[in-house]
Each structure stands twice: as structure tokens, then as C-alpha cells.
């Protein structure tokens, strides 16, 4: 089985968030760039400073690069590292959610607003109050309520927030050392999508015995790359397991969980990180993900790819074609 081709090769792209707006498929990825910074667990080598938006009319067809939609120098609160973004549409406006380090080096989530899916996006002057860590993913439910999922351990700093306040000394612990795993976070978004209107709560993932996944369960516990989609009335929370390099999912009857662990979607790809989105387009379901094949395996120079996924009668996800070994 041949591997997939990157959707674009003229720039490095990663962390793809795919959405259908006005009948077109839009992709909001990180824009990886070359740097001399050596790889470390902090993720300093992921030193991105702008976002491009891409669109396509068909999967496998031509991809349009709409150019720079938002850049670091235009965001007053950001010091560095524009990491994995997501986008949403609400009441005819388009919102780009993005994580970045503030001037104190703490990751926060910002939001920027546009009239068109491809931007340009105008950033709010401050990060979203109450937001922290990385990898925002938005989900607008059928009743119009929008949710913001976020979080990432290790370089994503989630372990620093276990008391509700940022504790720098907790950084080097990387994650919980025993007991339940640290969870991704979720909160409701306001009607104008620029603030949180509920408490931030844990996205709890349960094992087959109904117990929260343990911190020692590196094959299944949440690491980063939250994504939410809905299929046949069920909420699917998917995520990366980080150091074990799997993309997994869990399901619930509520967007707030708790979620039941469901299985793996993607086995490890070339490169350390793995990050994805899931979207329905023209009657088929697709997994957008990245690997490092375009750079010959450089961890911070990644490329976005697409695979079709299918559901069985129980709603279990698998790839439409087997993943090459
Ligand atoms: O792209 C930078 C970081 O790498 C993302 O925020 C993570 O999800 C990982 O893909």
C-alpha cells in the first residue's frame, strides 16, 4: 500500500484542523518553519510565527494556499510559538483559535476574527480569559452552543495547572506520576466566541471498567491534539497519546463527557508528533493528519496528509485503507 502524498509541498504544514464552510473544505494548519533550535521535550524547535489557510473543492484535487491569514507581529500578547490552531463559524463570522506563549512564556489561547473563512483574521488584543496550555479545538453543536477543548502535557504545560493556577515548579514533572492521567479541558464559549462562559472542566476518558485512564497508561492517556466531532448523535473526542505516537478516540452522549475509550485511529507515523482532525465532506469522512516525510524525518518540518475513515455498525472508527507499515 503506497503512502499518501502531502496536500501541499511548497510550505511545511502540521496540526491540520479541517472544516467545511460554504461547501468548500478549508484546512487550518500550523505553518512549520526552519530553525536551528535543537529538538527538546519543551518543543522549542516548533518555532512558528504565522498561519496560512488552505482550501480545496475536492479531496485529492488542487489545493489553494490563501497566504498569511494571521501573523505573530500583529498579536500584542504573543512572545513566540504559534502552535496548532482551529477555526469555527458562528453567525456569519469566522474565528481562528490559536495557542502561543505570552510575554511571560506561558501558553494561552487566543482568538482572531474574520469575515471570510480564509481570513485575514484580526486578533483580539488579549488571550481568552481563563484559557491556558495549547491545542485549542472548537466544536459548535447542533443547538448552536460552542465549546472550546484544549490542553497538552509536557511542552504544552498542562501539568503546571493542576492547582488551577500556573505553577512553574510543576513543569519538569511533565505529567501526573501516578493515579488518574491529566485530562484535556473543555469550556463553553460565548455567543461571540471570544470568552468562556462556564467553568473549565476535565475531559474524562474512562476505561472498560468505567475508571478514568491512568497516567501510567501511555498507550491510551491524553497527551495533546484534542478534536471533537459528532457522528450519528454521538460525540467523538479524539487526541494524540504523544510519547507513544497514537491517535485515539473516545465517545460520549454529551460533549462534556465522560467519554468511553474507543480505540486507535492511526498508528505511529514518521516523526515525533501526531495531530489530526476529522471531518465529513461530500458524504465521506476524512482524517487529516501530518507526518515528516516531506522533510525526510525532521520532527519540526511536517506535512499534512489525508486518509478516508469509515465507521462500523457500532460506530467504531477505522481507516478505509490499511496504514502502510
Ligand atoms: O505544532 C506544535 C505542537 O506539536 C502542537 O501544538 C502539538 O499538537 C504537536 O503537534
Layout of SSEs?
Blueprint: E1 12-21, E2 24-32, E3 50-56, E4 63-71, E5 78-80, E6 86-90, E7 93-102, E8 107-114, E9 122-123, E10 137-140, E11 146-150, E12 184-189, E13 201-203, E14 205-206, E15 224-231, E16 234-240, E17 247-252, E18 259-266, E19 276-281, E20 284-291, E21 303-311, E22 317-319
Parallel strand pairs: 14-18
Antiparallel strand pairs: 1-2, 2-3, 3-4, 5-7, 6-7, 7-8, 8-9, 10-11, 11-12, 12-13, 15-16, 16-17, 17-18, 19-20, 20-21, 21-22
The structure holds beta-L-arabinofuranose.
CATH topology, what is it called?
Answer: Tachylectin-2, Chain A
What structural class do you assign from the helix and strand content? Answer: mainly beta
Assigned CATH superfamily: Glycosyl hydrolase domain, family 43
Query: Which parts are unreliable, with pLDDT below 50 for 5 consecutive residues or more?
Result: none
Tell me the domain tally: 1
Helix content: under 10%
β content, as a range? 35-45%
Bound chemical compounds: beta-L-arabinofuranose
Architecture per CATH nomenclature, i.e. the level-2 architecture? 5 Propeller
Subunit organisation of the chains = single chain
Description:
With 325 residues, the chain is mostly beta strands. It has a single domain, classed as Tachylectin-2, Chain A (5 Propeller). The protein contains no helices and 22 strands. The strands form 5 sheets. Strands 5, 6, 7, 8 and 9 form a 5-stranded antiparallel beta sheet that branches. It has a 5-stranded mixed beta sheet with strand order 14-18-17-16-15, with no helix packed on it. A 4-stranded antiparallel beta sheet has the order 1-2-3-4, with no helix packed on it. A hairpin with a 5-residue loop joins β21 and β22. The mean pLDDT is 97. The structure holds beta-L-arabinofuranose. Beta-L-arabinofuranose binds next to β1 and β15. It comes from Clohesyomyces aquaticus. Keywords: Carbohydrate metabolism, Glycosidase, Hydrolase. Belongs to the glycosyl hydrolase 43 family. GO terms for molecular function: hydrolase activity, hydrolyzing O-glycosyl compounds. This is Glycosyl hydrolase.
Amino acid at each position: 500500500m503506497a503512502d499518501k502524498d502531502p496536500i501541499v509541498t511548497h510550505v511545511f504544514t502540521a496540526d491540520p484542523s479541517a472544516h467545511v464552510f460554504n461547501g468548500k473544505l478549508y484546512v487550518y494548519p500550523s505553518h512549520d518553519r526552519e530553525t536551528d533550535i535543537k529538538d527538546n521535550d519543551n518543543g522549542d524547535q516548533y518555532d512558528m510565527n504565522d498561519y496560512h489557510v488552505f482550501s480545496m473543492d475536492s479531496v485529492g484535487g488542487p489545493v489553494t494556499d490563501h497566504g498569511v491569514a494571521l501573523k505573530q507581529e500583529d498579536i500584542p500578547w504573543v512572545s513566540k510559538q504559534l502552535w496548532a490552531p482551529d477555526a469555527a463559524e458562528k453567525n456569519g463570522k469566522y474565528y481562528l483559535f490559536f495557542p502561543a506563549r505570552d510575554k511571560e512564556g506561558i501558553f494561552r489561547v487566543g482568538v482572531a476574527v474574520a469575515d471570510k473563512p480564509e481570513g485575514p483574521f484580526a486578533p483580539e488584543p488579549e488571550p481568552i480569559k481563563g484559557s491556558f496550555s495549547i491545542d485549542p479545538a472548537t466544536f459548535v453543536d447542533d443547538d448552536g452552543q460552542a465549546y472550546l477543548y484544549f490542553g497538552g502535557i509536557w511542552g504544552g504545560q498542562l501539568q503546571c495547572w493542576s492547582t488551577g493556577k500556573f505553577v512553574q515548579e510543576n513543569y519538569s514533572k511533565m505529567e501526573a506520576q501516578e493515579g488518574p492521567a491529566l485530562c484535556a479541558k473543555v469550556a463553553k464559549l460565548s455567543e461571540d466566541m471570544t470568552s468562556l462562559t462556564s467553568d473549565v472542566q476535565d475531559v474524562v476518558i474512562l476505561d472498560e471498567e468505567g475508571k478514568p485512564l491512568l497516567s501510567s497508561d501511555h498507550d491510551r492517556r491524553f497527551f495533546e491534539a484534542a478534536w471533537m466531532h459528532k457522528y450519528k448523535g454521538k460525540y467523538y473526542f479524539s487526541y494524540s497519546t504523544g510519547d507513544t505516537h497514537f491517535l485515539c478516540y473516545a465517545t460520549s452522549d454529551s460533549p462534556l463527557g465522560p467519554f468511553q475509550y474507543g480505540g486507535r485511529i492511526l498508528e505511529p507515523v514518521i516523526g515525533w508528533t501526531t495531530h489530526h482532525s476529522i471531518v465529513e465532506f461530500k458524504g465521506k469522512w476524512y482524517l487529516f493528519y501530518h507526518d515528516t516525510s516531506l522533510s525526510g524525518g525532521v520532527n519540526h518540518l511536517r506535512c499534512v496528509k489525508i486518509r478516508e475513515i469509515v465507521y462500523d455498525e457500532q460506530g467504531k472508527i477505522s481507516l478505509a485503507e490499511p496504514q502502510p507499515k
